[in-house]
User: Fold these one by one.
Assistant:
Number 1:
Amino acid sequence: METRHPIPFQLIELQDVCFTIQKDGEDVNLVNQVSLKVPKGHFMAIVGPSGCGKTTLLKTIAGLNPESAGSLIWDGRNLSEDEDFEPTEIGYVPQFSIAYDPLTVDESVEAATRLRVKSRNSSELDRRIDRVLDETGLTGIADRKVKVLSGGQKRRLGLAMELVSDPRLLLCDEVTSGLDPRSEREIVRLLHDLSRKGGRIVMSVTHSLAHLELYDSVLVLHEGCVAFHGPPDQLTHYFSVNDTEEVYPRLASQGGERWLVSWRKHNDSYREMMMKKRDKLIESGSLQVPEEPVPVSRNDRDETHKSTKTTPKENGEPKTTTPLVSRALPLPGFLGQFSTLLSRRWRIFFRDRTQVLLQLAILVIFPIIITLFSDKAGDNIKRYSDFKSDNMLIEYKEQAEVMADQAKVGAAVSGIIMFQVVLLSLMGSNNSAREIAGERQVYEKEKFGGLRPSAYLASKIVFLACLVVTQSLYMAFFVESFGGEFRGNFMDHAIFLLLINASMTAICLAISALMRTAEQASLLSIYLVGFQLPLSGSVLALPAHIDAFTRPFISAYWAWSGSVEALQNQVYDAVKSVIDTSLTAQQICLTVLGIHIAVALIAALAGVCRPQWD
Ligand SMILES: Nc1ncnc2c1ncn2[C@@H]1O[C@H](COP(=O)(O)OP(=O)(O)OP(=O)(O)O)[C@@H](O)[C@H]1O
Ligand SMILES: [Mg+2]
């Protein structure tokens, strides 16, 4: 009978994995034929000089960079052919912070948990949060705001937010960089401890060659190639140097591919050393690795998947193994993620005092500005008398008076409507231009962790809809009360004000979802608003051939035109007498604005579904 090796099988294996990009028409391998095998319960450092491809390798393992060649085997599953990791079985702590400054540590971990793990009840949720805070040493500062945390505390928080789903593979990118030596050691120790229980693999990218003794293995990368992967105490011996600090200068002495060729000759013997060390750790009880499928408590999961797979025979491991029961925790549903995001968005909004004050100032000041210009819009327009005078002079005089009144009132009414439309367009762009682009990296990270793009977008739509309704109706009713009554159907007018704000908010949300940076999104949105007034034709008519092309896209025209159509006949005629631009029936205006909103939301959905990592 075959003896069972303490290591049932490799949990993750890379076979000649490459990540290739095109540069000047040529293929460049940023990750070059990387092969490695990592067993359960392993703490591995990925080191190498800046730009050698550490982050790229980590992203390739995580599935964020699709491998160009080679295979990635996880838990007996070929990820290059089958489906990717379950979002909850992998944790990825990126180089940037993934927490929102205005929230507290506790709130950040709670939101991360609610977004990633389906909890049966609040006590189960609380237990999970408390456990993670405890594991990462954050319990004492749970109510502290993220913005006041130290660098080390922020890194712990980043880890905590990943640990909420109990990932079996934890990938960390430079979580110790920029920390003082003590904090660095504490974090490395924490990562070490996280790999000791439950068979979790922790791979940590670092520049630093300090504290290597805490790792089970060190992978040295040079120009995308593996130059070494073995026990840390063998590093200096392999590179024939006296001190680890001399490893990088030594690496520079030859190219990555040559290091790879040398490494392939030694790979097996160093691997054997790693395995022996590991066996000793297991025997001494310092490393706890579940050999059999992990027993999963009923509380923790909904379903288990058991299957028997064949893995290559190696190191005396059985040829056919029963993989670990997939411990991937179930994700929360759409509604759970949506409500978590929405309540987090409101919390962040109300905690950002500048944002609240700015919104209030815009809300209050813009309608006041409009009322200052509205006195002429309420003036009477002289009517033609019913009796025709025989006196031509009297007739001309009357006509001139009527026309003068029409010009004065028509220009004022049209101007007031357009003024409201333009200011609401500005509010719309201010509402949403940065909404997605400003938090894109955090969102990408959350999407990687299982957040549904549809839940994310829905939370943005509901949040923004509240702003749009408040701004538009406040504007409409304030001007109605203090700037003189709308001389026509006020409700129609209010609906068009609501629609222009909704339309610009939706369009700028789409821009925010499609642009790479918040600056690009803001700039484009401001230009878009800036062009609304001249291209609407409300001030000066455009040449017909330009007008035909631009009009369909200018939301301000449709809101202005729809609103003018709501005016009573006499005022409507007055407006018509001062403009050269043709007006369009209300139904068509409504339809076009509806199309603008729908197309913008579809574009925003496409934008949030598209991966956009830096
Ligand atoms: N998508 C990409 N397109 C083009 N070049 C890329 C891409 N991703 C990474 N690179 C380049 O590949 C190289 C490796 O980048 P990577 O970020 O992996 O390095 P690193 O080892 O993590 O560096 P550091 O230690 O400074 O974080 C760099 O020269 C980088 O500019
Ligand atoms: Mg990096």
Number 2:
Amino acid sequence: MRDPRPGLAWSRRRATRRADYATWMASAAWQQRRRQWLASWTARYGHPPTCQACAGPWNLHDGDLHHRSYARLGHETDRDLVPLDRDCHQRLHQILESNPAWGRLGRPQATDLIIARLRHPTSPRPDHEDTNDRR
Ligand SMILES: [Zn+2]
Ligand SMILES: [Zn+2]
């Protein structure tokens, strides 16, 4: 497995972004955004959300909202957020982080492709990707 050896500037930018992310995720405003997101989803589709990977039940207490994009962190649009249960969310991140090629695709597209793969786990996967020996 290749190690991309990112440059220092990139790492620092990423560390800052991570800190912003952690602060936002821990905020009351994010909890409020989650409730808003749920209301908006339910109004749009006429039923509560399900996990987009396995179609299992999703609720505010147990469910995660994956960021398809961090471009609007703190003022996400509805489409920036994808409902996933904890297990599927964890699997998505394992795949996303297992191969730098996903990063080069761009996060929104990588998210969509990985979710499609989680929905259909028998679809062919690149042989250089290892998702089993982690965690
Ligand atoms: Zn799921
Ligand atoms: Zn996520």
